[in-house]
Amino acid sequence: METLMACAKIKPVVNQILLHPYVYRRQKPILEYAAKNGIVIEAYSALIPITSSPGGPLDKPLNEIAAKFGATTEQILMAWTKAKGAVVVT
Predict the structure, then answer these.
(1) 3-state SS class at 14
(2) Strands laid side by side in the 14-18 sheet
(3) Among residues 53, 45, 35, which one has the least CA distance to residue 77?
(4) Which of 23, 10, 38, 78 is nearest to 69 (CA)?
């Protein structure tokens, strides 16, 4: 992203990235860079923990949080993604 920013005539306004709790640590620097530079993050595959990787370590906490708030696990993951400053793309 820094290379692009250094040579682009027009600054990017959106960056679409893979984002869900299992990849958050790896993607956090991109989120921080985007926030500092006014770039909107579009997050794809936010529901992977429950659609493609069920049975993982997030199942229990997601179900507990969903029950606590009367929401679905999908809604919880989308809210988590939004809380990280990203726009959810499904």
Answers:
(1) strand
(2) 14-18, 40-44, 86-89
(3) 45
(4) 78
